[in-house]
Design the sequence.
């Protein structure tokens, strides 16, 4: 994926995506879901922001340096229903170096609202190295 912003995934986020895709039975469904996910990243790679991205509160005990933001994509995946259709992509945006770091990918089947604060805090700390 080309663009002026670099997209990186924490290993945990890569595992999250694989786990979600594993749910699908057919190879075509798996490929379609992966391609849909990749299409979500295009605006991030091009401009560093997505029209559906919202700022997320920083967990207690964590501080982000100036120019780093925690954001989340809230997507309802077409063709799916229920909690599994509510895809969430949590990411850090490093403004100065034009980098997006995906820290977690989950559905409402995994977490009804948002992952626990200590879980998010741990992912942010890993992302800052």
Sequence:
């Amino acid at each position: 994926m080309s663009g002026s912003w670099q997209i990186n995934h924490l290993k945990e986020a890569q595992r999250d995506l694989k786990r979600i895709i594993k749910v699908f039975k057919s190879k075509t469904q798996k490929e379609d879901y992966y391609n849909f996910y990749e299409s979500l990243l295009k605006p991030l790679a091009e401009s560093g922001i997505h029209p559906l991205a919202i700022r997320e509160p920083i967990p207690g005990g964590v501080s982000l340096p100036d120019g780093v933001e925690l954001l989340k994509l809230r997507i309802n995946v077409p063709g799916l229903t229920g909690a599994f259709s509510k895809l969430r992509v949590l990411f850090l945006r490093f403004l100065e170096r034009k980098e997006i770091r995906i820290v977690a990918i989950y559905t409402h089947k995994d977490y009804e609202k948002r992952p626990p604060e200590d879980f998010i805090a741990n992912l942010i700390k890993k992302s800052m190295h």
Remarks:
- The chain has one domain: 6-127.
- The chain has three helices and five strands.
- The beta strands are 6-9, 53-55, 68-76, 86-94, 99-107.
- The two ends are 24 Å apart (CA to CA).
